[in-house]
Amino acid sequence: MKKAIAAFLPLLLAGGAGAQVGLSGGLNIAKYSYVSDRGPLMSFNAGLVYRKALRGTMVWQPALTWSVKGATVYPAIPIGSTNPNEKYLNRLGFVQLAAPFYGGSSLGDGFRFDIGAGPYVGYLVQAKQTQKRYDGSEADVSFRVGGKDAADFTPFDAGLQFGTGFVMGSRLGFHVLYDLGLKNVNASSNQPALKMRTWSLNFSYYFRGGNGGRKSSGGRASGGKRKNSGSGKGLGGF
């Protein structure tokens, strides 16, 4: 994970020809892969994003974010139980690096449509549980993170991120993302496999106006002079 972050940071600092860097963040709706007595957790993600046009209509948009995943757990309350807790909010804070590739097309007036997917990896930095009680009070406890049965969660997550959305002009983006966790993050071998399932509604603001990675649509006239293409917007970027 450290190597992945170390490889990503120079991209943000250097930018690169036709590339943009910016901020991205939004709402997470997180769950576990198994749903028995589990419900969605409303949380957030925020971080840095890099966007660069590749060949044709392809765009690469990796992002380094702080992403809170997890689930809401509703305990079974048998008759006569003295359990004071109504529900548990399991919040798992990951440093996450996602690297999706998007295909798409220009919709005119500075709008571009994106759709695609790519891998993601995450490192679990913080794992906490908020116990919501029937009397309105609450208490926070910390989970144990490690790689053995003595821990509650393993430190690493990995999977695929699917996304679709729009980029408006060269500054604003909106994407709907879905993280499909493929790695079991439950440290106990005696319990069911636990994988992350997270929807995200994200807004991005790109600092570098530039061409945002657009491909020039200008050609060459028969006389060797470059044609005037009008707007100059291609399908490879914004």
Automatic annotation (TrEMBL):
Per the record, the domain of life is Bacteria
* Keywords tagged on the record: Signal
**UniProt entry tagged with the keyword Signal:** yes
> What InterPro entries does this protein map onto?
Beta-barrel_OMP_2
Which residues fall in a compositionally biased region of kind Gly residues? 213-222
Q: What is this protein called?
A: PorT family protein
- The organism encoding this protein is Flaviaesturariibacter aridisoli
Disordered, as annotated region: 213-238
Write the signal peptide boundaries: 1-19
Where the record annotates domain Outer membrane protein beta-barrel, the positions are 19-185
